[in-house]
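Quick question, first post here. What does this chain look like in 3D?
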Amino acid sequence: MFMEPYEHQTEEKKIAEFWENEKIYRFDSKKAKKKANIYSIDTPPPTLSGEMHIGHAFSYSQQDFIARFHRMFLAGTGAEKGQVFYPFGTDDNGLPTERLVERLNGVKSKEVSRTDFIDLCLRTLKEIRPSFIQAWKKLGISCDYEIYYSTIDNNSRKISQKNFLDLFKRGLVYKKDFPTIWCPECQTAIAQAELEDKEIPSSFVTIKFSAAGKELPIATTRPELLQACVAIFVNTKDSRYKYLKGKRARIPIFDFEVPVIFDNSANMEKGTGAMMVCSYGDKYDVDAILRHKLKPKIIFDKKGTIIEGKYKSLKVKEARKKILEELEKKALIQKRESILHTVNVHDKCGTEIEFLPSEQWFIKILDKKKTWISQGRKIKWHPEHMRKRYENWVSGLQWDWNISRDRHFGVPIPVWECKKCKEIILAAEKELPVDPFETEKRCPKCGKIAEPEKKVLDTWATSSLTPQIVSSLVGNKIKIPFSLRPHAHEIIRTWTFYTIVKSYLAEKQIPWEDIMLSGYVKLSGEKMSKSKGNVIDPKEVINQFGTDALRFWAASSKLGEDLDYDSKDLVTGKRLVTKLLNASNFVFMNLKDYRPKKPKKLEPLDKLFLDELTRAVYTTTGRFREYNYSKAKSDAEEFFWKDFCGNYLEIVKWRVYNGNKKERESAFYTLYTSLLTILKLIAPIMPFITERIYQEHFRKNEKEKSIHISEWPKTEKIANKKEKYTKISWNKLTDLVSKIRKLKSENKKPLNAEIILSLDEGASIYLKGVLEDLKHVTNAREIKEGKEFKIEFV
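> Answer (accepted):
Ran it through. Tokens below.
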């Protein structure tokens, strides 16, 4: 099957097809009996909003290293072998999908009917989904793709809607008309977790207000909100403004008055110490207006356009520019400073957010901050320091979770409302999944037709239920907590937090036992982005270097750390692929028709090397179990290059060619066993080349049809006394061989130059059993015991 020369483009395609046709990564739910024998992964569903990027390749490779290791490790758990539950899904509801569909079809969701746009989204997703998923298969991600879900399919919608109804019935979901975070570009309310900080150039302008017959200078970065000002705040401890008690201040340009309020929240050190409170500049304004029961004055619509006054129809930034020009013209600016100002932007589009009153749905979370921190501490974080990020996020929460979105495409909120009776009517469970626009409901009080809810659920409200969604696909046989949740550290505040919330509210459980968090991919120290033009396409990388080389590069970073893209790592990975092939071909050139059988007695060198191999297995296994795949990779790679290729193959070569029957049998067994073991250690990182070598050389003798479902090498630890002796013996042998090679080179002698070798007494003790092999590899005519190490050229 795999006997041709290795061209990675054709070979990787052939191997991927073999895995799929033979269902190598299939999870058999009928055998899913004992939780202890199942390693369950809450796989992150990639957003179906474009093609795979290098960050995907980076983080998904890292989680796949762990999945592949556990699949092999569980293959050796006794009569009832274990399995890895590794489903695959796509996150294809909500705003990112809407924007993709708009871009691909040249439409705007708000400009077509809800029904037509939803139909367009579903048709577009059906067209692009197969090629999107194929990219993950090409990367060697070893999911069971038959256990598949979409966050917009009927099953996911049903589970999401049922969860909403359950929480509503328990009083944990509420609807409120409230100043919420609003994205004018996407025209929807968003949650705190969807905010990012962005530093932009701005002006800090001190404007001349007036009060009590005097100038009252107030500094602001948002002069466009002058028209929305409802009060002036000064601190009760600020002696500069005692004269303003009970007074009102006049707003420049717009010529209306607002009360001066003494409030200790006013920062005496910022600007002039006096501040304007507007509806709404930020969260502070929202709190201030609510606390003092001030009447808000809304001047923007949901598109971020001014709706009244002389600046009507202008966008925020246009209005800011015009107002500053008028203030300047009327000499109402006392001071103007250029600053770098940090603002909140929507993480989906980068637009500066506003606070606008709108009716939204919320899940209560603020009253349980201690619970969320406690639940987080029950989970093992890899790396551990990431838990602090989670706790900092929870501690900084300021709002309940806004779960509704003013968009067309998403999981519909399954309720109707009678506006007359203020009655919320819930869908029956048997109706789920339901679109309220397609089902008529009447008010149980007045009998009139109720209005269907127009809003849809935020995509995180559904994605936070992925453990329950994937479990439902296998008859709910996989219960939380799952073994693992892997994803990038940037969504700790969203997917991690929300899933912990939902699992606790639904089942009072943690969703997973472990969480592993990957970092960013950077280029020359900068995070990659299309706007910067520094994006690397993984398809091009794979075409040039091969998937194994890309995965090798992804394993170069410690878990949670950002990694700078460097093609040198890919070259190193490709070189390892070549060396694995060459070493395997060399071994089996001498093992034609070999049938592995352990000899009754192994030669001392072979026992020594197999002990060293056992040590490597023990260490590498521990690394993988600790999610330290980068160290596992480097340990296995070093053992292969240095101990196997650089030392053992060279030392045993004479015996392979010239030894007697027993000496050759011992060498053949050791070569076969050690090469297979090394391939297994490398297989989680580089699955294609290890499969190719396994199929070509080992399959005929091994019981499993793929290396990736074969048993992980035994991990017994060598007894301390023996450990010390064998380690010293192996090190003395390899150091000595290296030293002799160096001396021959320095003396301009060929490596096969004949010598007489003298060993000191200490070395002789440890090398007693391997002197014949030492003699042949160094081409020593004679090995003598002396007072010190010495070689003589013959």
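The longest strand covers residues 195-211.
The CA atoms of residues 368 and 501 lie 9 Å apart.
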